[in-house]
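Project standup — Tuesday

K.O.: blocked on the structure for the chain from last sprint. Re-posting the sequence here as requested.
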Amino acid sequence: MAHLYNEETISQAINTKWAGKTVHFAKETDSTNSWIKRLAKDGAEHGTLAVAEFQSAGRGRFDRRWEAPEGSSIMMTLLLRPEFSPQYASMLTLVMGMAVAQAAEELGFNVSIKWPNDIVISKKKICGILTEMGTNGVKINYVLIGVGINVNLKEFPEEMQDKATSLILEGGHEYDRNQVIALVMKYFEINYEKFIQTCDFTHLLDDYHRILANLNQPVRVIDGDRSFEGICRGIDEKGELLVERQNKEVVKVSAGEVSVRGLYSYV
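H.V.: unblocked you, prediction finished:
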């Protein structure tokens, strides 16, 4: 059965101190990141959540377009107003990735993370995350974390069928998107409050490594001319991927696309 999905039902499901306590919902918007950016400029508070049924201009990493039929997916963006320096903001993508994975685990899935921000079930992606930041040059004005989750999506284009999946395809039944959002907000709040204690992954490393698909697996780092292969040894406190090359040198990777053998890989 289809569950009601609107501002009221989402708000009623969320049980947090601040993450998602204020919910804005729209049947259609350009993108939830663009929408919440406008809300931020109008003074929206830390923890405000924007959710849309349909995005006309949704996009993912490397500006890949993100569209989904009505009722099938979660498209949302969380607004944060952190007090730490801008240099730490990029790590929040990983904090959110952990939250989505933990939410899927609570729903009964065997889930893992493909660094930096892909959530994987049965070696296929269920989620995309896009983080943006606004600053005045010195201090953060806002951080936006956009999240797209394939929930009740039953079909994918042919070119995506070996790379993408959804909760309904993996679990065999429909899921209440209100509940999924509530779980993500719960875990993000827990993870975020651990993160801001040190502005790094000191208190999150064990949890992250437990669900890291890349851990101790062969990886190919694709980053322009700087492409190489090695064994992933986890992440460090800054969220950088640690890749051990054949000569035993450990390289820290902070950007670029990482292709993982045995999982899907973009071309």
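K.O.: great, moving the ticket to review. Residues 177-198 form the longest helix (22 residues). The chain has two domains: 7-210, 218-260.
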